[in-house]
Design goal:
The protein contains 8 helices and 12 strands. By secondary structure, the chain is α/β, with parallel strands linked by helices. Helix 6 crosses helix 8.
Length: about 230
């Protein structure tokens, strides 16, 4: 069973989140603020953190920064009433993995948790399995049914293409804007523009057009998402 740390200063909200997680088969561990959460991390194994931002003693931003500066890559889902693009941008820049605004849809929250846990496992194992297709992070290689895939150019993908594919398939059905993908996969000071993402997506589609396990969908006016076919 996965242990999920629920860091929320409002008692009723914290209790509700814990009840939802318990109902879906997770083991919730409550914490009232960032300082309390750090103490819980010292005592117990935690698989994922659900984190509010506005809290006494240590807020969500400071908690996230403390973990990341200490080399801790624990998945963090920020769930907060702060809704502006600047708030979200700050959250992602300091190291959160996902961001939801209150009031949250509990089913969507659980789906995002599952995706983050799947991605965390993939990163720790340095591979991601989608049906019969396996992406090997260390070698930038994609294999299907135990054999190297044969996209144009061979089984080993260019780094940016592999990272883009790994990102999309780590979060199936989640829409990523071109800007989000640029910020994570290309350097922040890169001179490339968002059309670069379109070019790389086109190449990936061409390479894996016959793959039976996944496809990449364009969401008009928004961006792209990876979709599992099985």
């Amino acid at each position: 069973m996965f242990n999920i740390l629920v860091v929320e200063d409002d008692f009723n909200t914290r209790r509700l989140m814990c009840a939802v997680l318990d109902r879906y088969g997770y083991n919730p561990i409550p914490a009232a603020d960032g300082m309390d959460a750090l103490e819980q991390l010292d005592k117990k194994h935690i698989d994922l953190v659900i984190l509010d931002i506005m809290m006494p003693r240590m807020d969500g931003y400071e908690f996230t920064r403390t973990l990341r500066e200490g080399g801790n890559n624990l998945p963090i889902l920020m769930v907060t009433a702060k809704q502006t693009p600047a708030d979200k941008h700050k959250g992602f820049l300091i190291g959160t993995d996902d961001y939801m605004t209150k009031p949250v849809d509990e089913e969507e929250m659980v789906l995002r948790i599952a995706a983050l846990l799947r991605r965390s496992r993939a990163v720790s194992e340095h591979k991601l399995t989608v049906g019969s297709t396996v992406l090997f992070f260390d070698s930038l290689t994609v294999r299907t049914d135990g054999q190297a895939s044969t996209p144009v150019g061979g089984a080993e993908l260019p780094q940016k293409e592999f990272l883009l594919l790994f990102k999309l398939l780590s979060y199936p059905n989640k829409i990523f804007t071109r800007r989000q993908l640029m910020d994570e996969i290309w350097d922040m000071d890169s001179e490339s523009d968002e059309r670069t993402v379109d070019v790389h997506i086109s190449r990936l589609r061409d390479r894996f057009r016959d793959n039976p396990d996944f496809t990449i969908i364009t969401v008009r006016g928004l961006g792209y998402k990876g979709v599992y076919l099985k």
